[in-house]
Design goal:
Blueprint: H1 2-38, E1 46-50, E2 53-60, E3 65-69, H2 77-80, H3 82-88, E4 93-98, H4 114-127, E5 133-138, H5 141-151, E6 156-162, H6 178-186, H7 189-197, H8 208-221, H9 225-241, E7 252-257, H10 266-275, E8 280-285, H11 291-294, H12 296-312
Parallel strand pairs: 3-4, 3-5, 5-6, 6-7, 7-8
Antiparallel strand pairs: 1-2, 2-4
Length: 318
């Protein structure tokens, strides 16, 4: 029995030593890679000053204004939206906002409440001199967009959602282990998992350069303090959004994943949201949550046809 116990202790100690060595290796690799990658980031866009910090924006095209907002945790909104921006910029001026903690924008210690995020985004929009525009956004921008449109009704002429979040959607009451996730990043485990799992930008719409930049920015921005604070606020932000909706008179166009296997009621939630306004349209698309990765042309064409149809009916603002 004593011999068995001694062997067991030695075995556990050996496993522990191997794990410790592995974690030490991933930690060092992560620290070195982060330092090297910081010099490989290609600048883009231009910053505006918001709350004493730099918020990066990218503007493309000429025509009626569209302000484009990202989904939660998008490493680089400008690069992520690049195929869609290219389509829309043919006849619109498109402004991509990279909120604090996203893309090339600074991080912030301000709480990542919906109210704070919306105020900061609006400050950036105001700094650019935009007065009337379509607000277009992916995922969590659906929640931010409701608050934004209700606070700035004289500016927002329409909201266009790209598989956008809706109040009351299931699964948003979870509490995330942000401390554990921060430790995983510092230990280099996030980088290891990302390297094994690959990226979501295999589409030919993204160049090798952009895919490389997205990987670098993902390693930098994912699970940063700003990211983690926003993650921690997801539960309360959705709770605060419960029962809210877009202004009844605001035109609404929602591109939605047609068959969401993890949420069978997903399309119905958006149809109910569209029915709650006087001019709401839902366009189901067969695809994944990041619809703009593979269906940018369809989204742009659908938006353009919808806008032209409304303009033809005498509706102003688009």
């Amino acid at each position: 029995m004593k011999r068995f116990a001694r062997k067991a202790i030695l075995s556990v100690a050996a496993v522990g030593a191997i794990l410790s060595l592995g974690l030490a290796t991933t930690t060092v690799v992560h620290a070195v890679a982060t330092s090297v990658e910081s010099d490989r980031i290609s600048p883009y866009g231009s910053p505006v000053t918001v709350d004493g910090k730099r918020m990066n924006v990218v503007v493309a095209g000429e025509g009626p204004d569209i302000v484009l907002l990202p989904g939660f945790g998008t490493a680089s909104p400008a690069l992520d939206f690049a195929p869609l921006v290219e389509e829309l910029a043919a006849d619109h001026r498109v402004t991509v906002i990279e909120p604090f903690g996203y893309g090339l924008s600074d991080g912030t210690a301000a709480e990542r409440t919906t109210a704070n995020i919306v105020t900061e985004i609006h400050d950036a929009v105001a700094a650019l001199g935009l007065e009337r525009y379509t607000l277009m956004g992916h995922s969590i921008a659906g929640i931010d967009g409701i608050d934004y449109a209700n606070r700035y009704p004289d500016e927002v002429t329409a909201f266009v959602g790209i598989d956008s979040s809706v109040p009351g959607q299931p699964g948003m009451d979870a509490e995330f282990p942000t401390g554990l996730l921060a430790a995983a990043k510092n230990l280099g485990l996030l980088r290891l998992v990302a390297a094994v799992s690959g990226d979501d930008y295999g589409s030919s719409s993204y160049s090798e350069h952009d895919r490389e930049q997205l990987t670098i920015l993902s390693n930098r921005n994912s699970l940063s303090p700003t990211y983690l604070d926003e993650m921690a606020h997801i539960r309360t932000n959705f709770a605060d959004a419960a029962g809210t909706g877009f202004p009844e008179g605001l035109p609404l166009l929602l591109f939605v994943v047609a068959n969401n296997s993890s949420n069978p009621g997903w399309l119905q939630l958006h149809e109910e949201q569209a029915a709650a306004v006087s001019d709401g349209t839902v366009v189901p698309i067969d695809g994944e949550h990041y619809l703009h990765h593979a269906h940018s042309a369809k989204i742009a064409e659908g938006f353009r046809a919808w806008s032209e149809g409304r303009a033809g009916s005498g509706v102003d603002g688009l």
